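We recall that each integer encodes one residue's backbone shape. We quote one record:
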Amino acid sequence: MSAPFEERSGVVPCETPWGRWYQTLEEVFIEVCVPPGTRAKDISCSLQSRHIALSVRGQEVLQGRLFDSTVTDEGTWTLEDRKLIRVVLMKTNRDAGNCWTSLLENEYAADPWVQDQMQRKLTLERFQRENPGFDFSGAEISGNYSKGGPDFSSLEK
């Protein structure tokens, strides 16, 4: 079990050589550790619908085709405490079944256990959204949760 589910934040991180990435139903978060004292002018970051390029002081940190499409105009990056770059990408497809299995098409894949935990988390997030007012804090997802879990939309209310 390489990446525990962080109950308070609901994050299932996927560790990488440069930091980590994680996702929600709507967003993908990338956290890149950089040398302390890094300044914004040291960073070059290009965010496109299906591509990301990030370099620090001329050194490429992350570059490639994203696993799925994002909303280009809503992608942002920030430098926090001059030692962490946080990139936030808005997913184009925001269904619980759209659980990214890797950050880039052929790199930074979540191991099977982490992927399973990510999918459970997105399914639980979907249930919370569909049932406002219910407390799911102690809930556990088991059974069919792949592709966002069972579809209850056809049931009568």
